[in-house]
Every structure is written in structure tokens, then in C-alpha cells.
Amino acid sequence: KEMNSExxxxxxxxxxxxxxxxxLILTNRLCYYDDKNLNxxxxxxxxxEESALEFANTLVNMPVLAKYKRxxxxxxxxxxxxxxxxxxxxxxxxxxxxxxxxxxxxxxTVTTVNGETKVLPCLFAECRIWKRNRNIVxxxxxxxxxxxxxxxxxxxxxxxxEYKSGTKILTEYEF
Length: 175
Fold this sequence. Notes:
The protein is mainly β. Helices cover 11% and strands 58% of the residues. The chain is built from 2 helices and 12 strands. The protein has helices at residues 49-56, 134-145, and strands spanning 2-19, 23-32, 41-42, 63-66, 68-71, 74-77, 82-84, 90-92, 95-111, 117-130, 151-164, 167-174. The strands form 3 sheets. The chain has an 8-stranded mixed sheet with strand order 3-12-11-1-2-10-9-4. It has a two-stranded antiparallel ribbon with strand order 5-6. The protein is globular, with a radius of gyration of 17 Å.
């Protein structure tokens, strides 16, 4: 099915942090392929390896955005901080804190939304977080080390998809 563009939100978790003098490198496992997610959406991989990597690479050089907050006297991060203005325009209250530097698709063990443990191709992304904002760095480190972990969210803009057995399969998209 062809369409103009639709935005779909995903969430993920940071799995590693490496510290450098001027930045942190976060490694995030963004998603798995070839099985539906909580949105009822699937990104195909088997048979689509080349295009899946091409779509994944649209994330490289995209900014990492966040909103610093103090919550319960602790350094923390907000959400999308999105507001709709009276004229209908969308305004974001986040700031750029870094950039995505690389992506990789490799197999990993995941628990799917159906509760099954499977080895599936997964999208991993690295991003640099600039240390010039000490409060953001403090919040990132605190959240990463917390029981809840450092969670991230991101969007895919899709221009083409199809439905199979109630699952929306994205066939053209970008991050």
C-alpha cells in the first residue's frame, strides 16, 4: 500500500556506554527484525538484507535529542516534550545532545512481544553524546546504572507497507 508518510514510534534500551574525554558512546539495540513488535509492526530482514541495511543507515548522522530535567532531586531526562501550537505547528522542547555515528545489523537473542525467546537479526546503533552538558551526562549515567535502565525512543517514517496476518510490514522507511 502506498501512502505519503506515516510516523511510527519505537522504544529501545541502551546496552553499553563507553566513556571518552569529550563524549560518551552509547550502544543501543533499537529493534529486532522478522517478528512483530508491540505496535503490530514488523521490519523484514530475511530476503531484504540489502534494503534493511540501507534503511538502517538513514539513522547515521541523525541527532540524539533529549530534555534535561530534575525529578525528585535527581538528574533525569524528559520525554519528547512535544507541544502543538494554536496554529497547528508542532514544537519540540528537546535539544540536540549528540549524533548517531554507526549502525549494524547482527543476530541477538530477544524476547518477542509473544514472550518467545528467539535469535533474530537486530539493529544496533552507536551514538556520541557530547560531554559539554554535564547535567545530561549525569542523567544518562544515572539512568543507565538504575534498575529501570536508560530507555530511548525514536521514529520511523514509512512511505510503503503491506499487511499480512494483521501485522503491518514496512517495505520502505527511514529513521
